[in-house]
């Protein structure tokens, strides 16, 4: 019996490339809330039922617990798994079920727009 393994990431960027699920591009302005309940404007770049990447003006640290505001789902808790140059990747604490994910994605795509961060 052969055991399947994934390469061990050497950096946060490598970790982002080893995603467990494909991401959907959304370009959705939204808000992210930190552990002190402070909200910040972010751009949701991509998302999957397991996690997301956002662009931010701040510098959220790896390991932080945040809540991302998502259409139809509200505040969804996640753990930051990498942070680099105004971008963060996070994993939802509980994966989003497929039905709820599809509803959120359709609402997000209907609301997306260009954001000042590019």
From TrEMBL:
SUPFAM superfamilies: PilZ domain-like (SSF141371). Residues 18-98 form the PilZ domain. It comes from the Bacteria. GO terms for molecular function: cyclic-di-GMP binding. InterPro entries: PilZ_domain. This is PilZ domain-containing protein. It comes from Sphingomonas montanisoli.
